[in-house]
């Protein structure tokens, strides 16, 4: 886990051509290269470039406090900088930038590649590659030398972002893991291409931040490659970028979520599917225990993290695995966050009962209102994105705890909800069509029951969103967009959200409507995925895909993952986000994920591992993540096996005059709001007035958190005031 900063000189007077999956796009404003600088001073001399790269690394030193180094090619046209968090191969042999055994391939790598020993031996046997150390990052260079791009990526299992310079061809290769666990950003300043693990690393390299108002208004900063900053893009999950010596930038997709054709009847038995999932989860967790430093676990009161902890307990005690360099004789360490007991959001008691059941060591940090207020602005600075829930602040503070206890690596449960249909908004999409893969099930045989349950689920879901003020009560989906979504609703619900709209200046509200936000979301998907949604995938899988391509990589894996963990020099490893596990689960029928059955004794009523036939709506209900429950059953408590999904969120009700209210009174002054440029003062102030006190409006609090985040970014990044007229 590391920090990356890269500067590449591009040819002058050449318009940049950006090609994605074969389609040529016009370059963003300011990307046409000109003589001289178009956006701040440019490094020219070698010493100047080295100094700027060193300053860039200092901005992201939290990502790699153990070592750093810089490599610049003889022509001074490529500079690779890297700061290291030492996890595997703690010797100087693991220091980056890395170079191949013949000195032509140069790389910086962030993240972890698992199954490293096998891959090393494969490279040695196939090509005679001469490794200099034992770092898994060096294996990336060997694989690239053997297979080139994209072949080398297909052999890599793990979470990573990387940049390779191949001086044989003059090409730059930048790539990101399949799920977007590790970040990678790029922009162009003058005749320089800048690539980094965090946007703040661009500041010493001549980049001047500006708001991408359209991206914020359309919520495109949650989709695909756009960010909240103008002309700053992400390398998308599952993509690699090739930059030619002429300056052309081409993006290629090497992996995406694929689901089984909804009309194919499932022939595997339920028992076989459960066993396959269990074995793949155990394998994924086993791989992620390997490290040369101690490995701990984030443990909440939920099924996901408890499954990870339970499997780790099994692997350590029954199979002799180590948690990194901790021997089996030492206790497994888990880390948990607690909120006030009367808040309704505290799960620490359940987590403690799980820890007692497993016999593991528990470390807990308590987050009260004062602590949340104290950490809010630092959280925003590290996330580089406004948030609408204080859970991001809680996770930021929690990540300090393992580091304080001597741990550099933490396993987490992120991704299980996306993989196994864990969210409460999925039932209405699951019920939209029969599960043709399992025609023998009662819900598929009784179409009237399915339609009845669908109508109720949809009404309940819409009512909950209206109550929170996140969608308008009378909104109707555009028929064409509804058809493109195969008539699912939950993917649309979050795109048409009114959560941010009242904050925007009135001209922006008029131009960037809910329909345009939804259109932008769908347009961001690949053409093949859009066709699969319309013709091949069950609606549940469409809803799961939509979430996995938007909020998973661009919010959850950022604000609740990499950025808050790396702020404290912690490497997070989410075993559920393993592409081999995902490919297995994505091929399973919808009905083993979102499960309808009797309520008498939990997910698997009676002695059967399948629900009883003949269940009626009065005696049955839905069990999210059913097959995960069955796969995890040997490793978890009965309490967790039966427990329903409780999303990790912070308390939403806070008093007037308390630490949080005072924080936002300080941040959301008229001067600060006007300095952002695209926020509406009346809307922002109105939200602040409604967000605190006995009759607090939850939707207003989310608006306040968003506005407070934007003001904090404006101040910390020094973003100049946006001109609304430019965007309307």
List the helices and strands and how they pair.
Elements: E1 2-9, E2 18-20, E3 23-25, H1 46-59, E4 67-72, E5 78-84, E6 98-99, E7 105-113, H2 116-127, H3 136-147, H4 151-154, E8 158-166, E9 171-176, E10 185-189, E11 192-196, H5 213-217, E12 233-234, E13 239-243, E14 249-253, H6 270-287, E15 295-298, H7 303-319, E16 333-338, H8 348-358, E17 361-366, H9 369-383, H10 391-398, H11 400-404, E18 409-411, H12 416-420, H13 427-430, H14 442-445, H15 447-467, H16 479-484, H17 490-495, H18 506-511, H19 514-523, H20 527-535, H21 539-548, H22 551-566, E19 571-573, H23 579-586, E20 595-598, E21 620-623, H24 626-632, H25 638-642, H26 659-667, H27 670-676, H28 681-690, H29 698-717
Parallel strand pairs: 2-14, 15-16, 15-18, 16-17, 18-19
Antiparallel strand pairs: 1-5, 1-11, 2-3, 4-5, 6-7, 7-8, 8-9, 9-13, 10-11, 10-12, 13-14, 20-21
Helix pairs in contact: 2-3, 6-7, 6-23, 6-24, 9-10, 9-29, 10-22, 27-29, 28-29
Mind explaining what this structure looks like?
The protein folds into four domains: 2-253, Aminohydrolase, N-terminal nucleophile (Ntn) domain (Glutamine Phosphoribosylpyrophosphate, subunit 1, domain 1, 4-Layer Sandwich), CATH 3.60.20; 270-420 and 552-642, HUPs (Rossmann fold, 3-Layer(aba) Sandwich); 427-543, no CATH class; 659-727, no CATH class. The chain is 39% helix and 14% strand. The protein is built from 29 helices and 21 strands. A hairpin with a 2-residue loop joins β2 and β3. The longest helix is centred in the middle third of the chain and has 21 residues, at 447-467. The chain is globular. The two termini are 41 Å apart. Residues 22-43 and 600-619 have low confidence and may be disordered.
């Amino acid at each position: 886990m590391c920090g990356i900063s890269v500067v590449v000189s591009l040819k002058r007077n050449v318009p940049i051509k950006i090609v994605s999956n074969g389609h040529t796009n016009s370059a963003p404003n300011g990307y046409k290269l000109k003589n001289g600088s178009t956006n701040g001073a440019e490094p020219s001399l070698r010493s100047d470039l080295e100094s700027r790269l060193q300053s860039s690394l200092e901005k992201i030193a939290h990502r790699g406090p153990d070592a750093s180094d810089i490599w610049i090619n003889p022509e001074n046209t490529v500079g690779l900088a890297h700061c290291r968090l030492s996890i595997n191969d703690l010797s100087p042999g693991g220091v980056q930038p890395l170079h191949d055994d013949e000195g032509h391939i140069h790389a910086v790598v962030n993240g972890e590649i698992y199954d490293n020993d096998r891959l090393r031996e494969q490279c040695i046997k196939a090509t005679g590659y001469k490794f200099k150390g034992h770092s898994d990052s060096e294996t990336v260079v060997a694989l690239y030398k053997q297979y080139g791009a994209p072949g080398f990526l297909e052999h890599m299992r793990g979470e990573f972002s990387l940049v390779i310079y191949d001086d044989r061809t003059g090409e730059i290769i930048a790539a990101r893991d399949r799920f977007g666990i590790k970040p990678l950003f790029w922009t162009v300043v003058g005749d320089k291409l800048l690539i980094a693990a965090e946007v703040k690393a661009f500041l010493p390299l001549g980049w001047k931040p500006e708001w991408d108002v359209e991206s914020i208004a359309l919520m495109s900063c949650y989709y695909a490659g756009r960010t909240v900053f103008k002309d700053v893009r992400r390398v998308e999950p599952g993509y690699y970028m090739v930059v030619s010596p002429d300056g052309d930038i081409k993006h290629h997709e090497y992996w995406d979520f694929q689901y089984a054709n909804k009309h194919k009847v499932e022939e595997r038995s339920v028992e076989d599917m459960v066993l396959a999932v269990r074995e793949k989860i155990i394998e994924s967790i086993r791989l992620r225990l390997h490290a040369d430093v101690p490995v701990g676990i984030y443990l909440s009161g939920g099924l996901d993290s408890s499954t990870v902890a339970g499997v780790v307990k099994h692997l350590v005690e029954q199979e002799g695995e180590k948690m990194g360099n901790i021997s089996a004789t030492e206790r497994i360490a888990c880390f948990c966050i607690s909120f006030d007991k009367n808040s309704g959001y505290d799960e620490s008691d359940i987590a403690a009962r799980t820890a007692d059941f497993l016999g593991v060591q528990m470390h807990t940090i308590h987050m009260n209102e004062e602590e949340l207020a104290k950490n809010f602005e630092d959280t925003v600075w590290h996330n580089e994105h406004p948030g609408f829930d204080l859970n991001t602040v809680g996770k930021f503070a929690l990540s300090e705890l393992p580091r304080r206890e001597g741990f550099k690596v933490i396993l987490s449960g992120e991704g299980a909800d996306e993989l196994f249909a864990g969210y409460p908004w999925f039932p209405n999409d699951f019920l939209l069509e029969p599960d043709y893969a399992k025609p023998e099930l009662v819900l598929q045989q009784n179409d009237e029951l399915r339609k009845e349950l669908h109508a109720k689920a949809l009404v309940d879901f819409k009512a909950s969103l209206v109550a929170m003020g996140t969608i308008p009560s009378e909104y109707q989906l555009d028929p064409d967009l509804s058809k493109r979504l195969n008539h699912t609703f939950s993917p649309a619900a979050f795109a048409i959200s009114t959560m941010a709209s009242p904050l925007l200046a009135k001209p922006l509200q008029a131009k960037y409507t809910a329909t345009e936000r939804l259109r932008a979301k769908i347009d961001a998907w690949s053409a093949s995925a859009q066709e699969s949604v319309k013709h091949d995938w069950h609606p549940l899988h469409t809803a799961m895909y939509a979430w996995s391509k938007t909020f998973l990589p661009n919010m959850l894996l950022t604000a609740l993952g990499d950025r808050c963990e790396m702020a404290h020099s912690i490497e997070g490893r989410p075993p559920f986000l393993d592409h081999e596990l995902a490919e297995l689960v994505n091929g399973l029928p919808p009905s083993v994920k979102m499960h309808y059955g009797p309520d008498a004794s939990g997910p698997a009523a009676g002695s059967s591992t399948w629900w009883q036939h003949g269940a009626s709506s009065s005696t049955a209900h839905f069990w999210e993540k059913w097959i995960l429950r069955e796969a995890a059953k040997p490793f978890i408590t009965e309490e967790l096996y039966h427990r329903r999904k409780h999303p990790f969120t912070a308390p939403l009700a806070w008093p007037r005059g308390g630490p949080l209210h005072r924080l936002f009174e300080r941040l959301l002054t008229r001067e600060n709001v006007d300095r952002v440029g695209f926020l509406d003062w009346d809307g922002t102030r109105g939200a602040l007035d409604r967000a605190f006190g006995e009759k607090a409006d939850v939707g207003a609090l989310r608006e306040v958190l968003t506005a407070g985040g934007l003001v904090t970014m404006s101040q910390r990044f020094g973003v100049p005031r946006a001109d609304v007229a430019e965007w309307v």
